[in-house]
Design brief:
alpha/beta, 2 domains, 6-stranded mixed beta sheet, 8 helices, disordered C terminus
Length: 202
């Protein structure tokens, strides 16, 4: 059993915001008795981990089964004044986005921590989410986050191009990543996802 005191000690062991997200998520998953695929860090908190300090989200966005996670958060002393679960003395705010990410599970990535593995939302879906926020919700500040994601290695550009065309985001993608002459775009089936969801969790 991982007590609130145990979690507090782990969080106090580092001031790195990205590590705090990863450690907390790993402990939460383990204490809630969930598998490695059952908890996925998405949205700004996933960007924060990928960007390694270049971006600070201010919260932890989680896709996970609600009941076991809520039970664990309550056990650890979290309160819910609004839609988010808060423990101010730990400087942790948790937003339970839904049971599963809206995009591709195949492209999610796993990070190993001393407290177990943590799964992060796909970079590709996070990028598409930023493009949707910029275009449909006029959130110009998300341009810098999209550019951070564009620089990450290993992006499946065929998936990004497929969904960008499907979700009317190709113009935004071309604006931030102009196509090189002769570059071929491979058409392929892709995972689901809704366009322009205001939450921006992907």
């Amino acid at each position: 059993m991982t007590t609130a005191a145990d979690v507090e000690a782990v969080l106090a062991s580092t001031e790195d915001p990205a590590l705090r997200i990863l450690y907390f998520a790993a402990l939460l998953r383990a204490e809630a008795s969930l598998g490695p695929d059952d908890v996925v860090i998405v949205g700004g908190s996933a960007i924060e981990v990928y960007a390694q300090g270049a971006y600070v989200s201010g919260g932890i966005d989680v896709c996970a089964p609600r009941d076991p996670v809520v039970a664990t958060l309550e056990e650890w002393g979290f309160r819910r004044p609004g839609r988010e679960w808060v423990r101010l003395d730990w400087k942790i705010v948790v937003d339970l986005v839904g049971p599963r990410p809206s995009g591709s599970m195949l492209l999610t990535r796993v990070v190993e921590t001393p407290y177990g593995p943590v799964r992060l939302g796909a970079v590709e879906d996070l990028l598409l989410g930023r493009l949707a926020l910029i275009k449909f919700w006029k959130e110009a500040d998300e341009i810098k986050n999209a550019r951070l994601l564009l620089k990450l290695p290993g992006i499946d550009w065929s998936y990004v191009a497929f969904r960008a065309r499907k979700e009317n985001l190709q113009d935004m993608l071309d604006q931030l990543r102009p196509r090189k002459p002769g570059r071929k775009v491979i058409r392929r089936p892709a995972g689901g996802g809704s366009r322009g969801r205001r939450s921006g969790r992907q």
